[in-house]
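Quick illustration, no need to memorize.
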Amino acid sequence: MNIIRKIFVSAGIIAGLSLVSCDLTTESQSTFDETSVFSDPTLTAYQIYSIYEVFGHTNSHRGRYLPWYGYNTDIEWYISNTRDEKSQIVRYNMLSTNSQLNVSDGPYNELFAGIERANLSISGIREYGSPSTRPEMAALLGEALTMRAVLYTELLKAYGEVPARFAPVTPETIYLNKSDRDVIYKQILADLEESFDYLTYTTATSTDRVGLAFTKGMYARIALMASGYALRPDKGTVGTGNAGTIRLSDDPELSKSVLYPKALAALRDVISNSGLELEPDYEALWKSVNNMELTAGHEIIWVIPFSNSRGRWNYTFAVRNNGYTTYSPTTSDRGGQAGPVPYVYYWYDENDSRRDVSCVNFEWEDKGDGTLPYPAGIANWYFGKYRFEWMTSSPYSGGNDDGVKPVYMRYADILLMAAELANSSENPDRDEAYAKSCLREVLRRAYRGHESEADAIVDGLSGEEAIFNEIKKQRALEFVGEFLRKADLIRWNCLKSSMDNAATELNTLRNGGRGTITGRDYSLLGHYLWYRHGTENGIPTIEMYGIHLGENEADETTPPAGSGWIPYLNSSGATTEYIDTDSFTSTDTQLDKATPDGFYNADPNLQQWWPIPEVAIINAQGSLKNDYTQY
C-alpha cells in the first residue's frame, strides 16, 4: 500500500511542478514520501496543483467533457445537422461505446484520477500537516476539499450515479460499484462546510485557484442540485440496472427546507463580505475572458485553469472563422460547433446590453476582399462571448489549443442563485425583498444606461411564481453559452418540456410568425436580409436589416435607407429569403430542427445522463454496472 501511495504522490508532485516555473531546492523527487510532502506547505501546494492539472489532459475537460457537456437545451444547441456519434451525445441517445467518450483517458477516468489526487492530499494534510494549528495547511486542506467537490459535481452532472471514493485507493477498494448519489452529495456538502472555516476571501489570489467565495458558491450550486429533481434509480437499486424515475431525494437531510437556508446564508455572506462585484460593462467582461485578463476579486470567481497554450474553448465555441482569416491565425476552420438556439436573440429586450454580446448571426470569411463578417444563415447563431477578434493581446498564434479559460463561476451566478433560494416558499427563511434586490442588480447591469427599464421589470413582479419565472428567464439570458442550463432544467424538472417548447417557437419563427408566442410576434420579422459593413476600433463590423423585430418591411428589391446595403444571396448568387418555411431543415439528413427531433432522438427525461463508458465497465471487472439499460 505504501508503494501505491508513493507512486501517486510522486506523480502528483511532478504534475504540479508542470504548472509552476520555480525550482525546488528540497530533496530529490525520488525520495518524496507523504511525511515530507504534507508537512511542507510548498510541496503540498504542488500536490494540489496536480488536482487542477487533470482538466487539461487531452481527452479530459480540454477535448471531451467541455466540447460535449451541456447541450442541447432550450437555449443552446449543436449546430451540425449530422446524425453521427457526435450528434448522439448532444441529442440524448448516446451508447456506452460512443467513440468520442469511450476512451481510457476520457473524462470519466480523468475526473476520478483528479479525485484520487485530492484524496491523497486530504488524507496527507490531515495526517502530517497539522491543519488544526497551521492556518496555511488548513487553507490547503480547504482547497483540496473544494476541488474534490468540483470533480464530483462534474461527474454527477454527466453520469448520474458513480462510485463514492473519499479515501485513497487500496487493493481492497480498486473495484467499486456505483453509489447512491445522495451519499456523495452529503459528503461533498459536508466537505465544503468544513472548508468555510479554512478559507478566506483573500485566499484565492488568482481566478485559477479556489477560495472562500467559490467554495460558498459551490455549496449553493450543489445544494440546488441535491434538493432538485433528477432521474434516479429506485431506492436501494443503484448499480443493479434499475433506471428509476424522475424524483426528488427522499433523504430528509437533502430537502429544500434543510439545504436552502444554509445555501442562502452562504451566498448572503459572499454578497456582503467578499468584495466581489459585477463588471459594469458586459462586453468588457467577455473581452477580458478572451484576452485572458482574469483578475481575482471582481466578477469572475473561478475558471477552468488551462495554461495559455492549452484548451479548445474558442476552437469549439467561438464565432465561426472559415479557413485562414485575420481573426483566426490558422489554416483550419475554427469555432461555431454550437450556438444559441436562434430565437434566444429575440428573448432579449432591445436595450439589453447582453443581447449583441451573447448572440451573433455572422461568421468570418475572406472572399477576396479581406476578412469580413458575413451573414451566417438564420440557423447558425454563435456565442458572441467567444471571439477570436477579441483575442487582441492573448498569446494565441494558431493550432487547436487557444488557451481561453472557460468561466466556471462568476458573481452573477451568486446573485441569481441567492434570488432563487430567497424566493422559494420551501425555504423557511424566505425573503422576497432580498430575492428581488439580487435580481435587480443583475438586470441593472444588463440594462446599463437604461436602468429604469430594469427597475420596471423587477418592480412589476409579485409573488413566488412570477419571480421564479423571471429568474429562470434571466439565468438563460445571463449564462447562454456557459452551459449551466442543462443542470438547471434537470433540477427544475422541465428538460423535455423546455425543448418541446423550443421546437414550437422555432417553427413559429420560420413560418413568418403567423401569430405570437410567449409575447414575441415573429410576424414583425422580414423574410429578406440586407447587410453592410463598417469598422469599430479597426475591426470590421456588420449591420443587418430584416433580422430584428419591426423590420418586416424588408423585401428583395428595396434596400433600407442609407448607403452600402447588400442583399443576402444564395449560393447561386440570387437574392433569396433569409427566413422561410425551409429554415432549420436539412435535405441531406432529413432532419427538421424546428421539431422535437431536432433537439433529441430519445426522451431526454429518461436519458439525462451519459452512460459510463464501456472501457470503464470492462476494466471494473464486473463490479460496475450502468443503470440506464436503454443505452
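Residues 1-7, 17-30 have pLDDT under 50 and may be disordered.
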